[in-house]
Amino acid sequence: MLIYMLAAAMTVAMLIATVFGLHQEAGRVRAKANIKRFEGFGIRKPYRHF
Fold first, then answer.
1. From which domain of life does this come (predicted)?
2. pTM (predicted TM-score)
3. Which end of the chain has fewer CB atoms within 10 angstroms, the N or the C?
4. pLDDT-flagged residues of the chain (< 50)
């Protein structure tokens, strides 16, 4: 019986760790997209490439 309780506890712990990891990764992807979207300050002139 103890083995089943430990297995259930480990399963729940791994599910929580997986959800936490996915949440962290989604935050990183979101932050990366926001950095790409940021154009900087001032007027952007796309026709000027030096």
1. Bacteria
2. 0.59
3. C
4. none
